[in-house]
Amino acid sequence: RALLVTEPLRPALTAPGVEFVVDSEGQHRASLRWITERTEALMKHLQSNNVKLLLSSVKQEEVVIYYAKLYGVSVVECLSSEEMALISEITGVSPCTPLGDNMDRAITETAVVTFCRPLLLASRRCVHIGFSSVSAFQPHCLILCGPVDGVNEQHAAAVQEAFTMLQQLFKTVDL
After folding, report:
1. For residue 172, which phi and psi values (nearest 5 degrees)?
2. How many angstroms separate the first and last alpha carbons of the chain?
3. pLDDT tens for each residue of the chain, 175 residues long
4. Is 113 exposed, middle or buried (0-12, 13-18, 19+ CB in 10 A)?
5. How many CB atoms sit inside 10 A of residue 55's CB?
6. Which residues have CB under 8 Å from 48's CB, separation 6+?
7. Which of 83, 92, 90, 163 is nearest to 126 (CA)?
8. C-alpha–C-alpha distance, residues 131 and 60, integer Å
9. For residue 10, which of 31, 36, 29 has the smallest C-alpha distance?
C-alpha cells in the first residue's frame, strides 16, 4: 500500500502564525525529543496500517527518512504536482491529510502498488512503480533515453504534448 502526501510529515512544534519561545537548552532538547518521538510514532502507525511506500510531493526531513527506513517504509520525494495528479487519477486516491494527534485513525486512502523498484537512468535516480488501476485507464511504462540530455528533453516534451492532447480528447469524450 502507498500513501500520497503533500506536506512534510515531521510534526511542527506550533501552528502557523504562532510564536514558539525556547528559554533554555533543556527546552530545546525536549522539543527535539518530542519531534523525534512523534515521527517514530507516525512511522509505527504507517507500518501497522501496512503502508510500505510513501509518495511525497515535498522533500521530507532526515528524521522522517530515518524512521521510514527503520520501519520498512520506502519514501519517494519531490514528485511534481502533475505526477501526483496522475497517480491520483490512476489509483482514485487523494493525498492524505495530516494525521496530527489522531494516531488511532485507520489509514484508508492508500493506493495498491504491485511493485516498486529503484531505477538508475544515466545519473538520474528514478523509481518504477506499478499501480493497480481503478478506472478504465490502464497505465503503461515509457522510458525515454537519448545520447544527451537535450534529446531526452525534446522527446519528453513531445510525449508530454501528446499526453496533453489525449487528455483533452478524453475530457471532451467524457462530457
Report:
1. -70, -30
2. 32
3. 999 999 888 866 666 676 767 778 888 788 888 889 999 999 999 999 999 999 999 999 999 999 999 999 999 998 988 889 888 888 888 998 766 655 667 788 898 898 888 877 767 778 888 887 676 666 666 565 666 667 777 877 888 888 888 888 877 655 5
4. middle
5. 26
6. none
7. 83
8. 23
9. 36
- For residues 97 and 150, state if they share a domain: no
Q: How many CB atoms lie within 10 A of CB 85?
A: 13
pTM for the full predicted model: 0.71
Same structural domain for residues 78 and 158? no
Are residue 61 and residue 46 in the same domain, yes or no? yes
How crowded is residue 142: how many other Cβ atoms within 10 Å of its Cβ? 9
* Amino acid at site 74: S
Query: Which triple of cell numbers denotes residue 52?
Result: 510500505
